């Protein structure tokens, strides 16, 4: 729909930008053009979460302040948060970052544990008026209670929360919009099960809807990932009858140029600030620490040992693909550590049987597993890689048939027993059936937040004895 008097309201939306700062100035330019076309007073600009991602130095080095500054300058009216904000930043860091926001943060299903109240920087819903149209916004984020509880949040079932809030909000507004960082399947459920919603703007599963889904009375929309598109919804509005007429929704590709130069300058300044902080030396290494995605290495052993030690487990396990390159002796900065291990993945401890462990270890010796590309669940590497181990001694024949390569395995000098359970310190990614699926079958899972595995690795890099032990072979080839 072209801009004319029929446009009562234009809604612009983004989602899952994941700190792609290289695209943000162009996103701001597109949003600015579309806002000017419809009129400032008729345009509502929203983000649906995962704008922040600590894989990027601008976010890591400023703890999200760079993202908030860019969103302020772009002119967002309201946002909700995704798991990349809620699970990778502490409550204190979130409060500090959003304290600078000139936009509203709407988040209905994540009250503080214990009190049940919402954080001062967030509200469960917000009413914003544009050109006489009252828009009610409800924000909800993906529900990971086992993780959020460790950070002091009582994350609640988002569908239940929306079902409760829509009847309360509906009489007060003309249009109800849900900012849903829940994924496409849950957005479809919301539309089908909750009457009274006019629009659901989605994210989390990185889905792109070039045309909206029409389910019940709702238009379900989403703008993909990484800032490749800006979503646009034009609404005809009958100001006399106060009813919605035609609704047209589409997505607008974001070209490299033109850029919003004010936003570009902010990003440049954020990069300089982050670079200064991440340039601080955090360790001095007395030796080279190589990594091998297809076999045993010092750096992989060091991280596996760190997970075992940090979680106080019998065995430590991690996939070598978490580490993107080796380390040379000499000074190590915080930025170098981020480049080495960018994944926002947490340690965890589970109980696994000898059979479950042995299956994963056998698979880790096969090329189809080592070369397996992974996406999502916090993984920011390229391939799965082999398994790095600590607390075990394994003898294997590399020439033997698949799943028959391991000849013996011992834990603390005792043979690995099929039915016996062992405490294993590993990464939370494995609990989501990612990579070596038998590791997801563990019981009594305990997660450790807010530490990332790069924090665990840094502790090991500061320990001389741990460095020296990293050269000890855990896998011994039988000739």
Automatic annotation (TrEMBL):
InterPro entries: 5'-Nucleotdase_C, 5'-Nucleotdase_CS, 5_nucleotidase/apyrase, Calcineurin-like_PHP. Keywords: Signal. Residues 9-207 form the Calcineurin-like phosphoesterase domain. GO terms for molecular function: 5'-nucleotidase activity; metal ion binding; nucleotide binding; UDP-sugar diphosphatase activity. Residues 292-428 form the 5'-Nucleotidase C-terminal domain. One of its GO terms (cellular component) is outer membrane-bounded periplasmic space. GO terms for biological process: nucleotide catabolic process. Pfam families: 5_nucleotid_C, Metallophos. This is Bifunctional metallophosphatase/5'-nucleotidase. It comes from Paenibacillus solanacearum. The lineage of its organism: Bacteria, Bacillati, Bacillota, Bacilli, Bacillales.
């Amino acid at each position: 729909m072209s801009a004319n008097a029929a446009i009562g309201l234009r809604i612009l939306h983004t989602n899952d930008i994941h700190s792609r700062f290289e695209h943000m100035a162009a996103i701001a330019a597109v949003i600015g053009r579309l806002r000017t076309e419809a009129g400032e007073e008729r345009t509502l600009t929203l983000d649906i979460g995962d704008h922040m991602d600590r894989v990027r130095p601008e976010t890591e080095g400023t703890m999200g302040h760079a993202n908030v500054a860019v969103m302020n300058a772009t002119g967002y009216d309201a946002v909700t948060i995704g798991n990349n904000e809620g699970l990778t930043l502490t409550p204190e860091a979130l409060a500090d970052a959003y304290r600078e926001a000139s936009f509203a943060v709407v988040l209905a299903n994540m009250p503080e544990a214990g009190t049940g109240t919402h954080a001062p920087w967030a509200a469960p819903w917000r009413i914003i008026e544009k050109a006489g149209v009252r828009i009610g916004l409800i924000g909800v984020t993906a529900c990971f209670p086992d993780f959020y509880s460790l950070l002091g949040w009582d994350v609640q079932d988002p569908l239940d929360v929306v079902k409760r809030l829509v009847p309360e909000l509906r009489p007060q507004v003309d249009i109800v919009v849900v900012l849903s960082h829940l994924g496409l399947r849950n957005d479809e459920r919301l539309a089908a099960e909750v009457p009274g919603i006019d629009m659901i703007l989605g994210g989390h599963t990185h889905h792109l809807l070039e045309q909206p889904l029409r389910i019940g009375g709702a238009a379900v929309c989403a703008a993909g990932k990484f800032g490749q598109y800006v979503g646009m919804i034009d609404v005809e509005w009958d100001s006399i009858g106060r009813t919605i007429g035609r609704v047209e929704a589409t997505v607008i590709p974001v070209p490299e140029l033109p850029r919003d130069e004010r936003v570009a300058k902010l990003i440049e300044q954020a990069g300089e600030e982050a670079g200064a902080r991440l340039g601080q030396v955090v360790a001095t290494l007395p030796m080279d620490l190589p990594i091998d995605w297809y076999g045993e290495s010092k750096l992989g052993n060091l991280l596996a040992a760190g997970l075992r030690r940090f979680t106080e487990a019998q065995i430590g396990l991690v996939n070598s693909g978490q580490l993107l390159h080796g380390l040379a002796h000499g000074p190590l900065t915080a930025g170098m550590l981020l480049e080495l291990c960018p994944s926002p993945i947490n340690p965890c401890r589970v109980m696994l049987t000898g059979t479950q462990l042995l299956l994963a270890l056998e698979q880790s010796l096969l090329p189809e597993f080592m070369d397996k590309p992974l996406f999502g669940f916090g993984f920011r590497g390229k391939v799965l890689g082999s398994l790095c181990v600590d607390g075990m001694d394994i003898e294997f024949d590399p020439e033997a048939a698949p799943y028959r390569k391991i000849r013996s395995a011992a834990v603390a000098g005792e043979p690995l027993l099929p039915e016996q359970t062992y405490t294993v310190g590993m990464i939370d990614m494995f609990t989501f059936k990612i990579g070596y699926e038998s590791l997801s079958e563990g019981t009594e899972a305990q997660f450790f937040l807010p530490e990332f595995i790069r924090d665990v690795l840094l502790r090991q890099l500061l320990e001389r004895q741990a460095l020296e032990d990293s050269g000890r072979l855990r896998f011994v080839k039988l000739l």
